Amino acid sequence: MPTRLTFGVSQAFGEALALKVSTPGIRPVDAIEQLLAGTLAQNLRDSASLTLVKPPSVRLHSMYYKDRCAALPKLAADGYATWYVELALSTKRDDIPEKVEIDVIGFELEPINYGPAGLAAHRLWSKKTQNSSQPHITAESPYFAPVDFLRHASCPRSNAAAGTALCGQSPAWATLKRFRVGDTGFRGCVI
Predict the structure, then answer these.
(1) What is the DSSP letter of 52?
(2) What is the pTM of this model?
(3) Nearest-angstrom CA–CA distance, 137 and 43
(4) Distance between CA atoms of 172 and 142, rounded to whole angstroms?
(5) DSSP summary character for residue 94
(6) Which three-class secondary structure state does DSSP give residue 32?
(7) What is the rounded CA–CA span in Å between residue 191 and residue 189?
(8) Comparing C-alpha atoms, which of 156, 158, 142 is closest to residue 36?
């Protein structure tokens, strides 16, 4: 029976992204990668289908995103994609998953074409040690489409008549402009 895992980001991801981006010296791409790694690790810790003996580790290869200095308008227009996110687990020796099915919420997990081997959105391989098993899952290509990115990185409430976002959540939202689909630019947040 396959082990079912759910990876997802929520509105809290957008709020945390706003706080990180408002920190001096933090690039939006770095903030997304830090939050994505933390979110995936938390999703693994919260999974009822895994019995972990050690905290999971998530390795995100930061140089796979080509534009490291992308600003929020570029991310809102193009989205964010990376490749080969490695998830290392440590489970009880007898609890090794043979097959994994992954459901994603708030982003996409795009497959990569391996030619004769076919398409794969994720891969699983495992090794057994004396006391535990160590499954490794590689998420091939996580992708935040512009629509998904905007849903998580936009202000929570909007005033369509005025054409501006009414943030009111925290001062960090003022640094994260709300991009409206169909507009060619950003609208300022009104606090």
Answers:
(1) B
(2) 0.74
(3) 13
(4) 26
(5) T
(6) helix
(7) 6
(8) 142
pLDDT at 189: 38
Looking at mean pLDDT, say which of 8-12, 118-122, 173-177 comes out highest: 118-122
> Residue 185: its pLDDT value, please?
39
Q: Which of 5, 13, 17 is nearest to 43 (CA)?
A: 5
Structure tokens at 2: 């396959």
The identity of residue 39, as a single letter, is T
Q: Identify the band that residue 55 occupies on the pLDDT scale cut at 50, 70 and 90.
A: very high
91-95 long-range CB contacts below 8 Å, 24 or more apart? 91/50, 91/51, 91/52, 91/53, 91/132, 91/133, 91/134, 91/135, 92/51, 92/53, 92/132, 92/133, 93/128, 93/129, 93/131, 93/132, 93/133, 94/133, 95/50, 95/51, 95/133
Question: Distance of CA 82 to CAs 37, 68, 71, 122, Å?
Answer: 12, 11, 16, 13
H-helix or E-strand spanning residue 76: helix 72-78
Average pLDDT, the chain: 76
